[in-house]
Amino acid sequence: MEIETAAWIVVALLVLYLVWETVSPIISPIIIALTLAYILYPFHERLAKKIGNRTSAFLITGFLTILTFFFIIGFALWIADVKQSLAHYVESFFGWLLALNIPPSAEELINRLGEDLTKRFEDYVLSYTYSLPKLSLQAVVMIFAFYGILVNIRRIQEEVHSIIPEEHRQLAFKLMHDAGETLHRLLRGWLAVSILKGAATAIGFFIFGIADAGGSIAAGIFTVIFELLPILGGWVVWLGGSVYLIDSGSVGSGILLALYGITFISPLPDILLKPKLGTRERGVNALVSLLGIFGGYFAFGFVGIIIGPVALSLLGTLVTEWKEIKEKNKARG
């Protein structure tokens, strides 16, 4: 009996290893597909009531396919310029931080963070620059996974609920609820708005002649990064662009960019969207979000921006549940 159990354990471990080796190269596009499906599901649900579930999923996937196709073309055309411009912006920003007479320990941390961010981004970009077929293949996986998730999302939910043991169902539902709240705040609120602000920044930098297409895209990426940080915001980027224009003699353009930035990037959009998205987190919650975003990025790459905050949220739920169980046991004792 013990030999049979050991054999089954070995077989199960072998199967899990083979599955992981099969899935791990495409885990990033699958996570991106899950993220996009979560963001777009409310729209899909409304559209599906009018034209049907599969037709709605097919139309949304078709639109996503077109956007992905243009993204790959843009990636091939502008990635070298984006990489150089982003490295320049990162160096300029960290150089400005280091000029603020900060403590030596913080200065060393900022130096390491700046070097690591630049190196990681360059390595990430180079891994795709020399292998556009790899990027195209991952895009195909993402599109098919997105369609499959969107069409079968209710069945997936039922399957997940069915495999949860009855005695742990309450905790599992609480974990899923908290993970959903974190995803809702991060994806449908924070991240979605940050990407729109990044696009507005890129358009503004290009229109006002601050940078070429590659440099403007890099400025947009920088805006998204700043918007994800609980402490700063996209205003840092448009303010830097305005100061650059004024300093170079284009006072009118600098003022117009400032008005554009206030209206379309920050703070006016934050004020208008506050009732729907809620206020930005402060204090301990802001620190936890910051740790989740950067920790997830360093551990898993760009998809870690999603994984990190969700993982910390689930940890917080587990700690809270453990405290409640401990207090109940004390009361009984």
SSE blueprint and pairings:
Layout: H1 2-23, H2 27-51, H3 53-98, H4 104-129, H5 132-151, H6 153-162, H7 169-207, H8 213-228, H9 235-247, H10 251-264, H11 268-277, H12 283-300, H13 304-332
Characterize the structure shown:
The chain has 333 residues and is mainly alpha-helical. The protein is 86% helix and 0% strand. Helix 7 (169-207) packs antiparallel against helix 10 (251-264) and helix 9 packs antiparallel against helix 10.
Poorly predicted runs of 5 or more residues = none
Number of helices: 13
Structural class: mainly alpha
Radius of gyration (Å): 23 Å
Distance between the termini: 40 Å
Overall pLDDT level: 77
Principal-axis shape equals globular
List the helices and strands in order. HHHHHHHHHHHHH
Please report the total strand number as a whole number.
Answer: 0
What level of helicity do the residues show? over 70%
Main sheet properties: none
**Percent range for β-strand residues:** under 5%
Descriptive labels:
single chain; 333 residues; mainly alpha
Task: Please summarize what this structure is.
By secondary structure, the chain is mostly helical. It is 86% helix and 0% strand. It starts with a helix and ends with a helix.
